[in-house]
Amino acid sequence: MKRGQMLKKIKLLVVEDDYLTQEQMKLLLEDEVEELYQAYDAESGFEIYKSKKPDIILTDITLPGINGLDMSEKIKKIDPNIKIIVISAYDDKEYLLRAINEIKVDYYLVKPLDVELLMERLEELSLKVIDKNNNLDIAFIDSLTNIYNRRYFEEKLNELIDQKKDFTIFFLDLDDFKPINDKYGHLVGDEVLKIFVKKVKNVIKETDFFARIGGDEFVLLIENINKKEGEIIANKILNALKNDFVIDHNLINVGCSIGIKKYKNETFKELLKLVDFSLYHVKKNKKGEYWFYSD
Prior knowledge:
This protein is of the alpha/beta class. The chain has helices at 19-29, 42-52, 68-78, 93-103, 115-132, 150-162, 177-184, 186-201, 227-240, 268-285; strands at 11-15, 35-39, 56-60, 83-88, 107-110, 167-175, 209-212, 217-223, 245-247, 250-252, 255-262, 290-293.
């Protein structure tokens, strides 16, 4: 799915008191979303929310009357799952902590806005909205595990490479999965895959990209982490698999090998070849571990 297609299914409310900024938002977003609503103060924004039920709200903090955080808090009490991005001209720690910890907004962006970052965040939230509403195109979701599939992974990877993003790719492969299928049958094998996905999702962030690309092969794409942070994530995944899976009264030991590569301007094919090599290195030397490819 090409970047921006998800936004075509989204209703967006922008709450901003600056006229010029509103005009810029209109030029930027009007043709990108299904519906664009605009309000110049929090009270009007709240009324539009109640009447139009937008999927995502983008609001400034500093507004006439009540501020954007107070409005967001009122809306969150009605719908805790509403997606909200707050923006501010100030990188204020107090505002940030309240927005993230108390109100639990999705993102906090500082003016002047980075348009590319804003569009990226809107795209991420629109995907979650569509997924939540069970309207996500099945062509991009793995039907067994309900995470992204190979097709969407390839598009996401190409997008990250095209934009020269700072990201790390993890190639996860279950160890000795075929004997599990042979011994217990494919239905149990399917349950193993679903439990595996659940365990991995419990130790990664909701915003991390997780996909199933083959039978027992999975990938993670995580932005803006260094090697040490990547190793911590790999260890969390491996530790989450230490206890046996319990399926139909059977105790099944499931291991996982992980190949890791930080993107360094490789082409799509080059990057996949290198991360595949790192996984092969683990499989050959010691299954159930990880190996970080170093240039």
